[in-house]
Amino acid sequence: MGTKHDVLTEDELATFKISPEIHQEIARFIDRTGTEPSREAINILDWGCGRGRSVAKLREEGFNAYGVDIDERTMRNGYSVLARRGLDPTSVLLNLDDTSRFPDGFFHCICSDQVLEHVRHLPAIFSEMWRLTAPGGVGIHHFPGSRNFREGHLCMPLIHWLPKNRLRRTAIAICLTAGAGPTHQWPETKGSGFWPTVDTYYRYLDEKTYYRDIDDICAVATQAGFDAGYKLLGGAFPATRNWLPAALRRNGFPGSSIFLVLIRAKIDGTPA
Ligand SMILES: C[S@@+](CC[C@H](N)C(=O)[O-])C[C@H]1O[C@@H](n2cnc3c(N)ncnc32)[C@H](O)[C@@H]1O
To answer: Which of 68, 107, 233, 262 could covalently link to 226 via disulfide, CB atoms 3.0 to 4.6 Å apart?
Structure first.
């Protein structure tokens, strides 16, 4: 599988699958409408779309899908595949600053995959998502729990539990010495020595990750106007989960991801 640094190819897309939970929530949304809208009448936004893999797949399935991302360089790596599929890449993959181009309530579904743990200013993002969501529409967000045993980007245990200070930097150095580290070499660390590599990893976690308690995330979503609910997906020991302290359990210890569902109520207060 390619990374955000690689140009997206048709071969990679052929093996990429939209998560079944996203399809389920779209089907639930359609059920709630009590009508049978055509797929092209359903507007979907992939927030943090990266190279646009989900956008390409959802378009293939007939949905009117768009993507938005903070990193234009990554999006550019998806342009050629989208163009070959007859789409105008810059109209379907938009920079984060350009969401104002979409009118209020345009999207029936806003989804994100492995993105919310990277968002610095959550209240601003949830407010904009609320503005963009149609009354009765749904937000579907899949991301790692803040109490996962392993930090998924660096593949190191527990380092994201530590405060963003020298203690964490030391822990990264210890993990690296013990042989833990990302599965693929990062272009940013190519040719770097030990401490510059530690600093690159430390800076990445410091500047690009914001792990939060799921209760706090739901509170921000509720403040923005959504009805918020979530479930945990996967994880190594689901049978023993009930024995864990609540703060660990709800935040995905030891290895569950979180699937957050945000519904924008209709004007009369009903979900759809
Ligand atoms: C781990 S990648 C996931 C990409 C894509 N969802 C996928 O599965 O291929 C996280 C993406 O979120 C983007 N991102 C980070 N913060 C963001 C924000 N505040 N708004 C939109 N996108 C953001 C990053 O640029 C990156 O492309």
So the answer is: 262
Is the shortest distance between the CB of 144 and ligand 1 below 6 Å?
Answer: no
β partners of residue 60: none
Whether 19 lines ligand 1, by a CB cut-off of 6 Å, is no
- Considering only CA atoms, give the Rg of the chain: 19
Q: Which domain holds residue 252?
A: 10-146+210-263
Residues 90 and 49 placed together within one structural domain of the fold = yes
Amino acid (1-letter code) at residue 193: G
Ligand 1 site, residue 70, Cβ cutoff 6 A: yes
Whether 3 is in a domain gets the answer no
Establish if 189 belongs to a structural domain. yes
pLDDT tens per residue, range 123-177: 999 999 999 999 999 999 999 999 999 999 999 999 999 999 999 999 999 999 9
Q: Are residues 257 and 164 in the same domain?
A: no
